[in-house]
Design brief:
3 helices; alpha+beta; two-stranded antiparallel ribbon; disordered N terminus; seven-stranded mixed sheet
Length: about 210
């Protein structure tokens, strides 16, 4: 077991996350108990006659993605999550109680980035422009190292995406479900960190139900 995974397991053992006390819109997409709904980040739900509105909910929780990865893998165990698996909607069957699930990890990178507004036109001959405000990758790495236990040594998760499909027994419609966990704790200048992960729940009908 890698160094980061061992420490992450220790953190989870000390501060376990529980199933959400809130009433879940979709019980198949769980939330940690302390999650808080961020309705101001959600688009307005509108629909015409006979149109199914996709579910889109945004939540935040004070826990690192590394801890949440272990929590979600346990909570979604019945869906047999496989890292970077390829899913095919043609394989989705009615009444399948263990549909296949894929999950993907994206890690923080540490290139320097310019914070200046993008100019309307460059004034230099090579198409570049001078930068007066930088956010530095070395600072970002230091902040994460001081505040987080990595997935592996010097490797921190930025986003986790869980994805699966199932088919409704009553209508035969294929339903796509996705849970995205995104680290939103870094300040814009990468000099401060607040332990926050944003959780986005999405559900939509990909194929209309059979009349």
């Amino acid at each position: 077991m890698v160094w980061g995974a061992m420490l992450a397991a220790a953190v989870v053992a000390v501060t376990p996350l529980s199933l959400a006390a809130q009433k879940l819109t979709d019980p198949t997409m769980p939330l940690p108990e302390t999650s808080r709904r961020m309705r101001e980040l959600e688009p307005p739900a509108t629909a015409g006659d006979g149109v199914t509105v996709p579910m889109f909910e945004v939540w935040r929780v004070g826990a690192p993605p590394e801890m949440l990865l272990g929590w979600y893998l346990r909570r979604l165990n019945r869906l047999s999550p496989v890292k970077d698996a390829v899913l095919d909607t043609a394989d989705v069957r009615v009444g399948d109680t263990r549909p296949s699930m894929t999950f993907h990890l994206t890690f923080h990178t540490f290139e320097d980035e310019c914070m200046d507004p993008v100019p309307a036109a460059s004034t230099s001959s090579d198409g570049t422009h001078p930068c007066s405000r930088w956010r530095r990758g070395t600072m970002k790495r230091r902040i994460l190292d001081n505040n987080r236990v990595g997935y592996e040594q010097q490797l921190w998760i930025e986003t986790i995406t869980f994805l699966w499909y199932d088919r409704e027994a009553a209508t035969g419609a294929i339903v796509r479900r996705q849970i995205e966990l995104r680290d939103t704790g870094l300040s814009d200048d990468w000099k401060r960190y607040n332990l926050v992960t944003q959780i986005t729940l999405e559900r939509e009908v990909l194929h209309p139900a059979t009349p």
